[in-house]
Amino acid sequence: MPVTDVQHDLDNLTLAITADFAAPVERIWQVYADPRQLEKVWGPPTHPATVVDHDLTPGGRVTYYMTGPEGDKHAGYWLVTAVDEPRSFSFDDGFADLDFNPNPALPVSKNVYTFTAHNGGTRATYVGRYASAEALQQVLDMGIVEGATSAINQIDDLVAS
């Protein structure tokens, strides 16, 4: 399994996930840069994603929804704030209604995804920062660690295919 470490810190308002992949940095970058690949790994296997809009450039927006086992849909969006291809990108990640309007009742996180060469493959660090400890606790209670871990663990199969 690629995920090697998960740390949440309510004092610093962060959730950090580390994963190691047996593929070069450029290949891992492609997973996030290509909406058809991204939808194979964004969301846990029980809630596959459909990427609707995908603009991975500073100021760009990515919209998606995940479909649950009962056909229920859950939408979200990214607002891309920085891109350093293929090493990193930053974005605000929020929940949305099915028209992709932000849902102000749920937390928004500021994320930095970083990819570095490591042991012949790639070490990915996924760091999300929340506005408050309550916001971080809310997503922890929603199962973000389990969901993100199962989502990230799908990347190995994708890059091996």
Automatic annotation (TrEMBL):
Domain Activator of Hsp90 ATPase homologue 1/2-like C-terminal: 22-159
InterPro entries documented for this protein: ASHA1/2-like_C, START-like_dom_sf
Pfam families: AHSA1
Protein family (similarity comment): Belongs to the AHA1 family.
Protein name: Uncharacterized protein YndB with AHSA1/START domain
Species this protein is from: Micromonospora olivasterospora
